[in-house]
Every structure is written in structure tokens, then in C-alpha cells.
Amino acid sequence: MTQTDNLVEVRNLKQYFQVSGAGFFKKNWVRAVDDVSFSIPRGRTLGLVGESGCGKTTTGRTLLRLYEPTGGRIVYDGKTIFDSGDVPLYDENGRPVKNDRGQIRHGKKTSVSMLPYRRRMQIVFQDPYASLDPRMTIGDIVGEAIDIHRLASSKEERREKIIRMLERVGLNSEHANRYPHEFSGGQRQRVGIARALAVDPEFIVCDEPISALDVSIQAQVINMLEDLQGEYGLTYLFIAHDLSVVKHISSRIGVMYLGKLVEMGESSEITFHSCHPYTRSLISAVPIADPKISRSTKRIVLEGDIPSPVNPPSGCRFRTRCPYADRCCAEEEPEWKEVSPGHFCACHHPEKAV
Predict the structure, then answer these.
(1) pLDDT, tens digit only, all 354 positions of the chain
(2) Which residues contact 160 (CB under 8 A, 6 or more apart)?
(3) What is the DSSP string of 248-284?
(4) How far apart are CA 329 and CA 322, in angstroms?
(5) Dihedral of the CA atoms 190, 192, 193, 194 (nearest 10)?
(6) Which helix (H) or strand (E) holds 222?
(7) In what order do the strands lie in the sheet with 110-111?
(8) How many C-beta atoms lie closer than 10 Å to residue 251's C-beta?
(9) CA–CA separation, 290 and 195 (whole Å)
(10) For residue 130, which of 205, 60, 64, 208 has the smallest C-alpha distance?
(11) What b/e readout covers 211-238, taking b as 16+ CB neighbours within 10 angstroms?
């Protein structure tokens, strides 16, 4: 796959938040996202899963630069929109680019204005109750971005665009004059999706868009997102903690733990041939409809709590909860390596989890 086939590329992304330390003048850093790299081909979906607090949402918001990155590089449609200047350059085969002296070349510090990209990159927020302004009508909520980007030349055209977007997500023209408190959670999330679609984007970060909805509504929203992707050629970063949902909508899946990617691969590969103990635990927690198969399936229960991101464990961050951890895991951080074509894992003992 050539470089231009990827709409979004992220290299060594870091997002640290400063917090107060034990002393009055002491400051600590929460490493919410720590050295994360991935790419998303055009028209495809990358699913990002993990426990609450692992950095999934922060990754999505940092990618859109709603949070300014601490470090790393973000490339959108072949153009660098952020580069901290300390990330190696890679060629189209994923190998570091070297100069005449054999030294690895690094990018130049870059931070472009995001205004031209706001229309092309959108987000659907997790909480449909908090993401809509209660003082605005649904029509004004959907039409706000149309006004900002001047996509309508008249009031009639503006209203037509709003109604068309509402109807596309299963609402109707009467809903445009109502307020958010008059809608259910599922309807509000549809409004959020219509708002994202109103500016004709190419890339959408879906930040746990169904976690606050009833199970019966979740399937409707997932199916609608898939239909929209096929109709408009959208590219998704789909963030969720439910692996069963992610494997349904995603072509590739990345698994995060405590700010780091621990495994990534094709959806079927992660589901049936995962090699990281944490991924295996997540898969074992997915409910199985068949009672006979469910009883014969062994549940992998992790012991202990997630360590603090302010003071993560040395070596492998998962070692404090891993049944296969040894001295090597405590002393050395596992290398991110390809265990099979397109399947990457960061584990010292991937063969033990199989």
C-alpha cells in the first residue's frame, strides 16, 4: 500500500497532561497517549478498543487537534498538519529514511492552522446529552457548521441542507424546530451524526457513539454508520470499549492499554488469532449467544487494577496484571513487532497467550 492510500497517518503520537505532584511546586505528567502509531486507509474503519482510561478518546481528540499534541506527527491526506520535529521519517514501505551518512532523518517542526481541515475532519461525541446546546434548535445545531464554512448561499439552501441531513439520519423536517430536551438519547445521537455530516467530511472520529444508548438502538446507529460510509465514502476512527461492536464495523482493530497500543491487526485476525494476553482477556469477555459454547469457553479474568498513568510500571505496562510476566517484562519495554503479515503486537511472550 502506497502512502497516498492512507487518509490518516499517526506516528509516535504523545499527549501528556500536567497534574499537581506531592509537593507544592512539584508537577507530574499523565501520559494519556504515549508513542502511538497507526494509519487508516481511505474508506476504511479502524476500531480502537480498551478499558476506560486507556487513552482511546484522547487519541481521537488529539488526532483532530482538539487537544494540541505533546509530540509526534499527524499526516492527513499526505500533508503534515502537526510534527513535533523529533519523529523519524518513513518511506512508503514503513522503513526509516536515512541521509547520505546513514543517519535516520527526522521531520521539521510543523503546526498548521486547522481551520481548512475542520470541514474535512469531524467528530461524533460520546454523550448525546452533553454534546448538544440545549438553547439551540436542532436546525441551528446542524446548520451552525454550514454557516461557519459558508456552505449555503441563501436561507432556502441552508434549510434544504439541514432537512436533507436530518432525513438521512432518520429524522424529519418537523424536528428542525425542536430543542434537544424533546428528544431521546438515540435521536440526539442522530442529530450529532447529522451535524458531523452537514459539512460533507471525509474523516469522522466516532467517540463511543453508542455507549450511552439502549442496546436496541445501538444496532440501528451502527447500521446507519455503515450505510453512510458506503454512501459517502467516509473513513472512520471508531472508538469503543465493546469488542463485539468494534469487530462488526471495523476492518482493522487496535487494542490500547494505559496509553499504548499493545496489538493491531485485521478484524478477523484479532478476533481469532490474537497473541497479547490483554486482547485475549477482552475477547473472552464478549458474550456468546449459544449456551453450550458459552459454558465451554474459559473466561480470562484479569487480577488487580489499572496502574496510574502518572507512574506507569517499568518495562511492559501490562505486566502487573499479566499471568505470564517475568523479570524481562519488568526490565524491558516490549518491542512493537509484526508477528504475521499486517498483525502487530507488543509482548515479550506472545506465544504463551495463544
Answers:
(1) 444 589 999 999 999 998 876 555 667 889 999 999 999 999 999 999 998 889 999 999 999 999 999 999 999 999 999 998 877 776 666 677 777 777 777 777 888 888 889 999 999 999 888 999 999 999 999 999 999 999 999 999 999 999 999 999 999 999 999 999 999 989 999 999 999 999 999 999 999 998 878 888 888 999 999 999 999 999 999 999 888 889 889 999 999 999 999 999 999 999 889 999 999 988 887 766 666 665 666 767 777 778 888 888 999 999 999 888 889 999 999 999 999 999 999 999 888 766
(2) none
(3) HH-SEEEEEETTEEEEEEEHHHHHHH--SHHHHHHHH
(4) 10
(5) 90
(6) helix 215-232
(7) 27-41, 6-20, 71-76, 79-83, 110-111
(8) 15
(9) 39
(10) 208
(11) ebbeeebbebbbebbeebbeeeebbbbb
Q: What is the 3-state secondary structure (H, E, C) of 33-97?
A: EEEEEEEEECCCEEEEECCCCCCHHHHHHHHCCCCCCCEEEEEECCEEEEECCCCECECCCCCEC
Q: What is the DSSP letter of 156?
A: H
Q: Is the dihedral of CA 48, 52, 53, 57 positive or negative?
A: positive
Residue type, 342: G
Altogether, the residues listed in the chain come to a count of 354
CA 68, 82, 109: angle at the middle one, nearest 5? 110
C-alpha cell at 61: 481528540
User: How far is Cα 229 from Cα 233, in angstroms, rounded to an integer?
Assistant: 5
User: What gap in Å lies between CA 23 and CA 265, rounded to an integer?
Assistant: 43
264: Cα within 13 Å, side-chain hemisphere: 20
